[in-house]
Amino acid sequence: MEIEAVAQLIRQGIPGAEVQVSGDGSHFDAVVVSEVFEGLTPIKKQRLVMDTVKPQIASGELHALSIKTLTPAQAADQGN
């Protein structure tokens, strides 16, 4: 699976999100910044992102996705 395809799936599932993805074709790291994460627990944030790629994980097309979720304020604090 291509890096941009993973990023696009996340963007489609979380409209307005800023998404950065890196990886090697089956293992990916994603940083997702979105206002929708405001007030959510870390688990709920992870689930929101994982739900965007659930079919690809189920099919084996996407083997692993490491996720870092941030609100815009958190991203600004971290310089992202």
TrEMBL record:
Pfam family, one: BolA
Cited SUPFAM superfamilies: BolA-like
Superkingdom of origin: Bacteria
Positions of transmembrane segments: none
The family this protein is said to belong to: Belongs to the BolA/IbaG family.
UniProt-recorded name of the protein: BolA family protein
Organism annotation: Thiocapsa marina 5811
